[in-house]
Each structure stands twice: as structure tokens, then as C-alpha cells.
Amino acid sequence: MNPDASTIAAGAPIQVDLSPIADGQDIKVFWRGKPIYIMHRTKKQIEEARAVPVDNLKDPATDQSRVKDGHDQWLVVIGICTHLGCIPIAHEGNYDGFFCPCHGSQYDSSGRIRQGPAPLNLAVPPYNFVSDTKIQIG
Amino acid sequence: MSGPSDYKPSHPALQWFERRLPIMSLVHSSFVAYPTPRNLNYWWTFGAILSFMLGIQILTGVILAMHYTPNADLAFRSVELIVRDVNYGWLLRNMHAVGASMFFFAVYVHMFRGLYYGSYKEPREVLWILGVIIYLLMMATGFMGYVLPWGQMSFWGATVITNLFSAFPYVGDTIVTLLWGGYSVGNPTLNRFFSLHYLLPFLIAGVVVLHVWALHVAGQNNPDGLDIKTDKDSVPFTPHATIKDMFGVSVFLLLFAWLIFYMPNYLGDADNYIPANPGVTPQHIVPEWYYLPFYAMLRSIPNKLAGVIVMFSSILILVFLPWLDAAKTRSCKYRPLAKQFFWLFVIVCILLGYLGSQPPEGIYVIAGRILTACYFAYFLIVLPLLSVIETPRAMPNSIADAVLARSGKVAAVLVAAVVAGGLFLGSAQSARAEDDTPPAQKWSFSGPFGTYDRGALQRGLKIYKEVCSNCHSLNYVAFRNLADPGGPGYTEAQVAALASEYKIKDGPNDQGEMFERPGRPADYFPAPFPNEQAARAANGGGLPPDLSLITKARSYERGFPYFIFDFFTQFQEQGPNYVSAILQGFEDKPPAGVTIPEGSYYNKYFPGHAIKMPKPLSDGQVQFDDGSPATLPQYAHDVTTFLMWAAEPKMEARKHLGFQVFVILIIFAFLMYFTKKKVWADVH
Questions:
Q1: CA distance B372 to chain A (A)
Q2: How far is B440 from chain A (nearest CA, A)?
């Protein structure tokens, strides 16, 4: 009763071209049925994310651990609230990150939980940069 | 109660059969000669009602399954086609959907009866636990059944509830992947839920057999909690209990019929008339009413795993009830303190249910925590304490001597009144804050005898064709429907002529190419855009929704206590009021201090006020042949009436049959009542 072969094949890695995404913009792609936010962060967002003391976070994680080296402006997170599964809205909330309309969880510009009932940060899917303007998710 | 029967059939052929499979004597000893306490009240008819409802659900479900397609791309449409095209499909669907609610309503009455009269106490502990197992199976069945139509609430309810299992450490994610059959709720999930939804009711039936067997071993409890001692205490099941159950069922059927024929969507959620969209979460995810108290408890606990444990515990605690409440007196009739706490518990459950439907903000969160604590306190503190400190009233010597006593629920009534007042004020407050409630209009189709105004339908069709169809599809309406009874009332010839004006894509031809041909009555109204992306590109990024179900897919809160009055007045026109309000609610300039994004338009009634659709209708835009005024209110009224018909083409047939069924049911209920009185005359 585990996922069958065709479901697993449909979940094969996808490649996404990053060049159309401007500074400060984000897009949503689907992979394995889940929505994935690809956010082109502004300098301000990166600085804000890095200035937060990690120990204060509900789910401690450094911003650096959630992005790829040399590609700090790209945030790739699964857009599913870790509380009960709704899709948070990008560029909303007090932390210029994500806001979940279902029960009010707020994530920052690194996708980390800052306020509200969600227990964990937004998950980072497995991905890597095949070139400077293209990533492969999965 | 159990043991060999002394029933002997008269006919030799039956005697031959009886010797080989003694089913007749089994039925005779269990349901004919079976000694039933003579003091049972009507709360005891709910067992029969539940058996009846299980039968109805299985029967309607099996027939629905002959027409339903359990595939994520086809499920929603297959349900709509059942409602529109299958003979009496609308009746089957309404019976099954409303039947689930009625099944849960009956099971809650049945369970509360058990709590009040101590039906879980010695020697009925196993009977009670079998009942809890049936209840759990019912909850699983109901949950999976709700996913099957594959609407927005089906999909997102499935997402939230399956995600709960990820709370368990180590095994959580494996369980969730197994439930999903993939990486998220999707087609494999739907397929396996359909398979299990078909299976579980038969497991329920099996446990029900065990439940009735356990009941017959111990004998039925009764309102006085006394055992049957002599023949004077009991009456034979047939005809006494049989006729009383039939009367109970006939009254229950009246309530059932009221919902099926006149308010089929009252207990449902408008969002489930929107096809499932994994990319868009509805504003409020709300389960069906029978899960609301547990949903409230889940959301009260800030920790994810603790919330799941609390929610499951709230049902599992019932299993331990016979040992938590060790009082020797069974019935609350003779337990003055336990009686008060019972009614408080009932109010706690109802309030938890109400909270489950509200967004978890502000005072609702605090109230939820307090009420969850009260719920558990009843089982863990109150009942064990009462079994030690309470002095029960003197009980009669036997059932035959029992006399009905007065009950004192003063405290509980006061609490109920205070709470009701508080809820009313609470909803009045929130209503005043946002008065963008669409104004209530008069509709020809409202009320038990409402019909569609043919003129309005025909004018509405004209408006759709000339204006709306440029952007909005009407995928579930075929040209032939325009000639169906209860609709705009065109003739077959008019429909054929109308259809032939359209160009429909067909093919491939023998050369392998697609081609265009004139429309035929069997074709559906063609969509203005070939796919979602083309629709968005032509409409500034917004997607014009399909209009076939729009008047059922939109609604607004009525607040407490109006939603209770609505049940009796049959008010269900929120959708049409909303659509009509949107069409007339455009304003050239937003009010002072309000800004809306570029490319949007200000609309008074659209949630958030910024709608991507420009004002579609203005005075004089569409001319009518019948001389009706060419004004915006007229357009809004006519096109909304047309869209209501598009969403509910069988409404007139439904109300017509409903009236006939009601007349017959009322006559039947009267007949059952007088027969019951006659049968019981010698007993009273």
C-alpha cells in the first residue's frame, strides 16, 4: 500500500529556471503534489534573517543552513504550514516572510517559524544548483 | 434471554428447514417473544433508528457507487452527473449525504441516553465498548465519505486530518505516507479512501450484530435501571417494541425528509461545491458538524502531538466509563447530582461543537481550553467522585412499581440561558463590525413551494450568452437541459436551433484532424477558453470561475441564533443573495482610506473588496423581448435565477416529491401512533 511506481516516477526531480524571477519576487511550483516557494530575496531580507539570534527561535536554525552557499538570495521552501497543512501566503506578516491564514502562524524571510502555533520551520526540499540560473528540485 | 427457543413452526416444510438452520426460532426468540422492559421511553427507539439508517446508507451508497468515479480528475464531475442525469440521482445523493448527518445525530442521542441511564454499567460493559468501536468505525467511514466528492473541503479536510498522524514520533510519517499513497493527498488517496469507505460499513454491520447479541445476553436497560424480575415487568418485543420503534422511525423520517427535500445543503459547506484545488486553501477549514467538538479540542491544545492525543483520548475515555463511574445506581433518574452534571456535560459538548466551527481567535481559544478541561473533568473527576459521595434517591422495588418522577435541571437551564445570550451578543458584535452582508432579496424559488420564474430563466440565459459567457464557462449545463421540466421551458426544436448556433470542437476525423461542427442538444455549453492558463492570460491573471455551481459554492455566515431560525424558515438563499449583490456592488471609487491593488476593481460585497472582474453589467446593456426593464437590478435578479437553476436543475422535482412524501409520512406517523396506543392499551 506504499506509493506505487507511477506515483514515485511522477515525483521525479524537476528543473526550474530562475532567470525570470526578479529581485524581491517569488514563484510557486509544484513537485510531488506539494507547492514550493522559490523566493528571490532582497539584501534587506537576507540581513534581517541573519540578524536574528538563533537561540530565540522555536525551531533553531541559521539562515545559512537553509540556503545554498554562494546562492544566499535564493530561498527554496515547501509552502506547507507545519501546523495543519495550509498554504502560507508569501510576503505577508510581520517578518516579511510568510503568513498562514488558517491559524495565524508567521514565518520570517528564511521560512523559520517566529509566531503562532506551527511547531517547525517551513521544510526545505532537497535541491541543488545545476547552474547559476537553474535548480533541480528532488 | 439467550438459550434455545421453544418456537415450533406449524408447516412441515418450515419444520424441515428449522431443524437444519434454526433461523426462525432465533428471530422469534430475539425479536418476537423477547421480554422487553415495559417502562422503556422513546429514547430507546434510537437503536432501531440506527439499524434503519445503516441499512439506508448501505443501500443508497451501493447504488451511488455504480455511478461514481473515484479518480481525482473525474470524481467531482461524476457526482454532479449523478445529481443531474441519473434517474433520481439527486434523491440518492441527498439521502446519502443527509443520511450521514442523521446517522450521527441518532448515534449521539443513543450515546447520551446510555450515559444518562447508566446503560454502560455492569453487566453491559462489553456492550458499551462494542458501541464505542461502532462509533469509531462510523467516524472513519464518515471522514472518508466526505473526501469522495473531491471538493475543496473534501481535499483540505483530508489534508489536515491525515497530517495529524505525522504528530506521532517515529511512525508518524510512515503512517501518513501509507494513508496518502503518495507524497500528498492526491489520486491514490481518493482511490484507497473509496475502497475503505465501501468496506467499513460492512464491518460496522458485523460489530452491530455483536452489539445486539451482547444486548440480548444482558437484556435491555430501562429508565429506572432495574432488572426484569417477573413477567409483570416485561412485554413481548413484538408487537409492543416493534410498533413503538416503527412510530419512532416514522417521526425520525419526518426530520430526515425535511432536510433531504427542502434543506439538502443546510448541514454542508458551500466550499465543497468548488472542485478541489491543491494550490488554494479555503479561508476556514471546517469539518462536518459531527466532528466539530473533537476539532475544537484538537485546536485548544497549542502543542501538535498533545492536541492529537487529547482528541483521540476524548473518545477512548468512553471505553473506561464503566470503571470510572462505579456508582451502583444505574439511572440518573435516581441520582440528583449526577443528573445536573449530565446536563452540564451535554451543554459542554454542544458549546465545543459551536467553537469547532469558529476561527480559533480571541475568546474562542480560551473558551475552547476551558470547555476541553470540563469535558475531561466530567469523566475523570466528576463521575468517580459522585460514585463515592452521592446518595441516590430511593428506587422502586420493581419496574412494575416504577413511577415517573419530576426532574430538576434548574441550574443547567440557567447556564444554558446565559451561554445562549453570550453567543448571541458575540455574533451580533462581529456582524456590526463588518456589514458587508449581501442584502436579502426575494426569490421565486425560495420556500417549500418555490418554483423558477420561467421568464427570469430565459432572460438570465440571454444575459449569460451575451455577457458572461465571454469569460465564464458553464461546464455542467448541456443544451438539452434547457428543455427539461423545471427549467427555462424551451421546446426541443428551440433547443436544437440554439445548439446549432454554437461551434463545437470534435474529432479526430479519418485524416486524424480535429474539426468544428454545429452544436447538438447533447453537447455542453462550450467554455470560452481552452484551459486555465489561457483564461488567466486573458483576464489579468485572475481565473473566471465556472458558473454552473456558483450559487451553491458561495455563502456567508448568518450567526447565532439566525442559523437556527433558518432551519425552520428554510432560508438557504445565501448564494443567490451573494451573486446578486456582487453584480450590483461595484463602485467607481473605493471609499476614503481604502486602497486596492492595480488591476482590481472595488466591490462592496466581495471579500477583501478587490475583485479582478470589471463591472460586467450596466443599465441598457441587454435588451429583453418581453419588455422587462433593461436595468442592472433586473439583470442581477434574472441572471442569478438562471444560475440557481444551472446549479440545481432538479429543484422543482425535489420540492414536488418532497410534498408528496411529507403527506404520506405524516399520515403514516399518525397511523403508527394510534396503532401503538392500541397495542399498549392493555399494558398501561
A1: 18
A2: 29
Grid cell listed for B673: 401512533
How far off is chain A from B196, nearest CA to CA, in Å? Answer: 13
- Which of A2, A30, A85 is the closest to B163 by Cβ? A85
Residues of chain A neighbouring B304 (CB-CB closer than 8 A): 83, 117, 119
Nearest to B176 by CA among B161, B163, B194: B163
- Cβ A82 vs Cβ A121: under 8 Å: yes
SS3 of A53-101: the string is CHHHCCCCCCCHHHCCCCCCCEEEEECCCCCCCCCCEEEECCCCEEECC
The cell numbers describing B526, all together, are 462550450
End-to-end CA distance of chain B: 24
Cβ-based contacts of A27 with chain B (< 8 Å): none
Surface-to-core class of residue A69, CB atoms within 10 Å of its CB (0-12 exposed, 13-18 middle, 19+ buried): exposed
Helix B336-356 to helix B89-117 angle (10° resolution) is: 150
The strand order across the sheet containing A134-137 reads A14-17, A134-137, A127-131
C-beta of residue A30 within 8 angstroms of C-beta of residue B278: yes
Q: Is the Cβ pair B302, A101 closer than 8 Å?
A: no
A133 contact partners, CB below 8 Å, separation of at least 6: A17, A18, A19
Whether the link from the prior residue into B485 is cis, omega within 30° of 0, is no
At residue B213, φ and ψ (nearest 5 deg) are: -60, -50
- On chain A, the residues whose CB falls within 8 A of the CB of B180 are 3
Q: How far apart are CA B330 and CA B402, in angstroms?
A: 14
Place of cell 531580507: A45
Contacts of A1 in chain B (CB under 8 A): 178, 181, 192
Taking a C-beta distance cutoff of 8 angstroms, is the pair B641, B443 a contact? yes
ipTM: 0.71
Q: Is A103 a catalytic residue?
A: yes
Residue A122: φ, ψ to 5°: -60, 135
Nearest to B460 by CA among B582, B603, B624: B624
Task: Return d(Cα B180, Cα B176) in angstroms, integer.
Answer: 6
- B283–A32: do the CB atoms touch at under 8 Å? no
Catalytic-role residue among A71, A83, A91, A103? A103
Question: The C-alpha cell of B564 is what?
Answer: 437556527
A59 close contact with B: CB closer than 8 A: no
Nearest to B101 by CA among B298, B234, B269: B269
B→A contacts (Cβ < 8 Å), by residue, are: 156, 159-160, 163-164, 177-178, 180-186, 188, 192, 278-281, 283, 285, 299, 302-304, 360-361
> Which residues make Cβ contacts (< 8 Å) with residue A16, sequence separation at least 6?
A27, A29, A38, A134, A135, A136, A137
CB B552 within 8 A of CB B265: yes
Task: Tell me which chain A residue has its CA closest to the CA of residue B192.
Answer: A1
Q: What is the mean pLDDT of each run of 10 residues along chain B (684 residues)?
A: 68 93 93 93 96 98 98 97 97 98 97 97 96 98 98 94 89 92 93 97 98 95 91 91 96 97 95 92 87 93 89 96 94 94 96 90 90 96 94 85 50 60 55 71 95 97 97 97 96 96 93 95 96 90 92 91 91 96 94 81 89 93 94 97 98 97 97 95 76
Q: Find all residues with CB under 8 Å of A67, minimum gap 6, and list them.
A: A74, A75, A76, A110
